[in-house]
Amino acid sequence: MLTAEQQAEIIAIRQKWMAEYGLCTEPANRPAAEDAIRQAYVDAKFTPPRHIIWADSPYAGALTLAIVPQSIDAATDLVKEAVQATIAGKVHTIREMRIQVKFDPDAADMWWRDVDYGQHNSDFLSYVDAARQMNLQDVGAVDGVLRVAQNAGWWWPAEEFCIVTERPNRLYWDNDDELHCEDGSAIEFPDGWGLYVWHGTRVPRGLIMGEWSAQDVLAETNLEVRRCAIEKMGWERLIIEGRFEQVGEPVNDPGNPGHELTLFDIPAALTPEESGGRLLLCDNATPERDGTRRRFGIVVPEDTPDPVAAAAWTFGLTSDEYAVLKRAC
After folding, report:
1. Closest C-alpha to 146, from 168, 117, 172
2. Distance CA 77, CA 193 (A)
3. Taking the model in full, what pTM does it have?
4. Which of 31, 127, 134, 308 is exposed most, by the fewest CB atoms within 10 A?
5. How many CB atoms lie within 10 A of CB 168?
6. Rg, Å, the chain Cα set
7. 250: Cβ–Cβ under 8 A, 6 or more apart, which residues?
8. What angle separates helix 122-133 from helix 4-17, to the nearest 10 degrees?
9. 164 near 71, Cβ under 8 Å?
10. What b/e sequence results for 193-229 when a residue is b if at least 16 CB atoms lie within 10 Å of its CB, and e otherwise?
């Protein structure tokens, strides 16, 4: 069982790793990284690589791997998902942090089997380093692996060569520690490759850069991406640009006292099926962290007669049943 002092020391080591290495956007220290790669090979009882090849992004690194004669099973189409996955959840506040010191001691010695995420593996490696510094567990010969993460980005070790990548030169996140940028890429590398992310959800570039129209938003089949597009555009602009016609007057929401329901006709030309429909504009019954209520819309059948009937339809209820609810859940 860890003492309070040990827990505090682990947190401090982790914070140092994330601040100085995991979230670093400075250029890689190439001499230090190459020296660390050679040490990692030696520690794992391999001959150091004859060639160390630098790439300017994980995507470029995967492409390089794909064209190297000795490469096997290069999976470049998974790079975007992997970048997102290795960064997502790595930026935590202390209140979300878990104290982790029990891990497979062989894990850090298996780096040569696959890509190593370098600085983006800082979340795990910070605990390896803490266990080593505090003599909590024998973690093996991991100094080389740790130093690569402290000085560079992703790397692919192989028998005769090693591909290693630069760090990102652009990195933004929101108050909930999710990757996010409203006017450009949330993470970008020196060669220009990067990801466009809206509060943790990867989205197309055109959405972030304001190139989407109301028709683009409503035609989007991925519900999460469409939600992000609507948040980016705003309901008022979407309704105006889409020429939505209001159906009747706004009414009080029986399932969400103090909030209104408004129903609109969706022009047929804006729906993927060209079949029209109606849009219920309402407020979330559950407050956000800051106490506000998110305004959102739900597409309902085109024959829905009024806002209460639309809200009832989303719960599988009749208008009369919904009208007597104390609060929607």
Report:
1. 117
2. 14
3. 0.72
4. 31
5. 26
6. 25
7. 260, 261, 262, 307
8. 140
9. no
10. bbbbbbbbbbbbeebbeeebebebbbebeeeebbbbb
